[in-house]
Amino acid sequence: AKANGKNQVAFFDSSMTRELVRRREIEGELRAALQRDELSIFFQPIIDLATGKIRSFEALVRWFHPEKGELRPDEFIPVAEETGAIVTLGNWITAQAARAAAQWPDDITLAVNLSPLQIKAPGAALGILNSLRDAGLSPTRLELEVTETLFLEDSPTVVSFIEELSAVGVRFALDDFGTGYSSLGYINKWPFSKIKVDRSFVSGPNVGRKSDAIIRAVSQMAATLDMDIVAEGLETIEQVSAVRDAGCNLGQGYYFSRPVPDYLAAMLLAQDRES
Ligand code: C2E
Ligand code: CA
Ligand code: CA
Ligand code: CA
Q: Domain of life here (predicted)?
């Protein structure tokens, strides 16, 4: 048992070290990546399930690394959060996304993901408003997606951030709904206009009678409260029908479109208007 334990420690060590090395690399290269133009914003349509038309696009950041290839945000956003680089990165993302969105028809909105650290940085709300102004995008066309981790600690900075932006018409969506602990409490407390039901309710081992009942209940609540409810991660027509029947009014996922660069988003919109 002793030898075994030793092996495990050794294994743990080397994988930890590899992980650390990779994080260090990412940390160092992230700064340069912005300058070198390796990052870009992709857009994934969010569809009105009643009409099949595009209602908005979610901005999703991509990093095309010259040696490592495409890095997923799940890999580098946490590193950017740890190092504080998320503030610069986040401002850049909002500015780029707003510029693309300013080219879309007025009734198409833009959803941007915000990390808690970004919101807690001084001047966060002002930074977002400046990006919108520079891009010529009305605040009423912006929706900020946040997860409940934002509210884990009661922070006055978060309160004023949300109040300041709500006052000028920016809307808030509760992302990854159903993965945390007390989302209903947050819905009661904060002015969300949209709930995004996590993909784990749409596909995977936990999908069934219970997940269906939860989506139904939350959809009913959303309708009563005049909130949108979007199902994420829709990959098949069966999943689309299921969430539509359960009462979700919006849907997003590979079934409709993968996240695409801005010029393809504009093409999707043009096609959508023709049909
Ligand atoms: P999220 O906000 O929950 O974004 C949804 C993720 O699901 C995206 O992954 C999207 O590409 C993926 N997705 C969409 N449709 C489908 C589908 O049908 N099937 C499957 N399997 N996946 C689908 P992505 O782009 O890799 O982003 C991962 C996470 O990284 C996001 O989760 C978000 O938390 C974070 N993130 C992405 N972009 C940004 C950003 O600009 N800023 C911040 N702060 N976080 C970001
Ligand atoms: Ca999101
Ligand atoms: Ca999500
Ligand atoms: Ca997420």
A: Bacteria
